[in-house]
Specification:
The protein is an alpha/beta fold. The protein has eight helices and six strands; from the N terminus they run ααβααβααββαβαβ. The chain has a six-stranded mixed β-sheet, sandwiched between helices. β3 and β4 form a beta hairpin. The longest helix has 18 residues. The termini are far apart. 28% of the residues are buried.
């Protein structure tokens, strides 16, 4: 069923992202599709890899239920564990084997993470950078996650997605144990968690933080007492 859009509404849609739709055959249709994709991402609709968009974490309600169910039970703060996995040299996989193979490979990475963390959401932080969130309701602990075991399982699970004889890329791993003290609302959690995930990955990628990274973020707004000494 066709729907009519007046010129003002059509122009407003295109103006939301003029550079992205500049060369589109149907700019208005393209603008509407982009809006739908972004809203689906915020609402936690998995993308082509099977992972959730970072927008579900930073702009959506991914952590709302976790906050409502657990925050009042944890007097020491709201805690979450995370395993960040980045594919090394993904650009070479696409260059050697083509983007369809690369897409299949990323789906295998996500499926492996989902299998290794049953019930835990997998969030796509960047193109080939994913985070397995061990939220409180899963009962999983990041301290029980061994990086060598994760790497071995990933290599085993993704091998079938590549052509026979192809080299399996390596992975950069970061483990994070994060506690947010006195969060006032579930909406503050997502952006803070995303920022800490990116920080943990960056430090691991640079070789500056081997092993488990532990972070506590106080949100109470209290001014520390001055040290009398």
């Amino acid at each position: 069923m066709p729907y009519a859009l007046d010129e003002a509404l059509a122009s407003a849609l295109v103006a939301l992202d003029p550079r992205a739709v500049r060369h589109a055959a149907d700019p208005v249709r393209d603008a509407v599709q982009r809006l739908l994709l972004e809203e689906h991402a915020r609402r936690g609709v998995p993308d082509a890899t099977g992972a959730l968009s970072f927008r579900a974490l930073t702009q959506g309600a991914l952590l709302q239920a976790e906050f409502d169910l657990s925050t009042h039970a944890h007097h020491e703060g709201w805690s979450v564990g995370a395993l960040v996995v980045d594919v090394k040299g993904m650009i070479h996989v696409n260059a050697r084997h083509g983007f369809p193979v690369g897409d299949t490979f990323l789906r295998a990475v996500v499926a492996s993470l989902q299998a290794q963390g049953p019930g835990a959401p997998v969030v796509r932080l960047q193109g080939d950078d994913f985070a397995l969130l061990l939220v409180p309701s899963t009962g999983l602990r990041i301290t029980d996650v061994a990086e060598d075991s994760v790497r071995a399982r990933l290599a085993q699970d993704v091998r079938a997605s590549l052509p026979e004889g192809a080299e399996v890329p390596g992975f950069t791993l970061a483990r994070l144990a994060l506690t947010i003290e006195q969060p006032t609302h579930w909406q503050v959690l997502g952006p803070l968690v995303w920022g800490e995930l990116m920080r943990a990955y960056t430090l691991a990628e640079r070789g500056q933080a081997p092993g488990l990274q532990e972070r506590r973020l106080p949100l109470g707004g209290f001014v520390p007492e001055r040290d009398a000494s």
